[in-house]
Amino acid sequence: MFRGLLPPLIQRTANRSIMFGTNEKYQRLFGCSERDPSVCRAFCSFLAGATEACLCPLERVQSLLQTTKHLDKFKNTGHTFRLIYRDYSIKEFYRGYSLMAIRNGCSNILFFSLREPLRSSLLKLTPQQVDSNNNTRKGLIHSLADFVCGGFLGGCISTLFYPINVVKNRMQSSVCAEFISSWLVLKTIMTERDGSIRALYRGAQLNFSRSVLTWGITNSIYGFLIREFF
Q: In angstroms, what CA-CA distances link 56 with 95, 126, 182?
């Protein structure tokens, strides 16, 4: 049940740090405060997502460890990394990279574009007398708004791009196979699932629940760190 747990643990920690950190870095680098903010910030968000995709080998190893047909071939995270590096090529680690870059980049554009407006709207619903109370209660209200905002956006965005994950996982579950386009993989999956869009979203409910929690917690922690230390 916990096979392949280590790669996502490492990836999630590094992923969010890269996502928030590089987004701010790119905005300063390209001077988004001086240019058209919407276009510049969207571009920086996409770049941050593409930078996140450098962690593709971790998702690749996770997919292999959790694929039934590879249970006897790959024992654990370290063994999988060694085996791919020794018997195949570095290119195998980055199977599905383009899909990850598109998924992360587009997700970041939506998240960073909608995050602050949604958060501000939630805070406006707070009674003025409560908001002006002591700093502890005010901090809790802001953290709750960050959690709701992050969880809602994370759940919706991850569901929107769920089919990309389905295609990516199929591509990354094979070893030493021909590198074929994501479009052909999608057509194969749709054929297997009788062309049903609903079948393409199989498992999306669980993914939504997980995303609500992870994105809510991540966004609330990020908001807390920004308020307290920056």
A: 8, 41, 16
The interaxial angle of helices 6-29 and 204-229, nearest 10 deg, is 50
User: For the chain, percent helix, then strand, then coil, each to nearest 5?
Assistant: 80, 0, 20
φ, ψ for residue 89 (rounded to 5)? -140, 165
d(CA 216, CA 222) in angstroms, rounded, equals 10
Quick one: how far is CA 21 from the chain centroid?
14
Whole-Å CA distances, 26 to 2, 21, 40: 36, 9, 9
Q: Which amino acid is at 154?
A: G
Average pLDDT, the chain: 88
Q: How far apart are CA 37 and CA 217, in angstroms?
A: 27
Residue 145: which pLDDT band, with cuts at 50, 70 and 90?
Answer: very high
Beta carbons of 99 and 168 less than 8 angstroms apart: yes
Average pLDDT of the segment spanning 139-159? 94
Please say whether the beta carbons of 212 and 152 come within 8 A: yes
CA 158 to CA 106: how far, in whole Å?
11
Q: How far apart are CA 60 and CA 63, in angstroms?
A: 5
> For residue 46, what pLDDT is reported?
96
pLDDT for residue 34 is more than 80:
no
Report the pLDDT value the prediction gives residue 67, as an integer from 0 to 100. Answer: 86
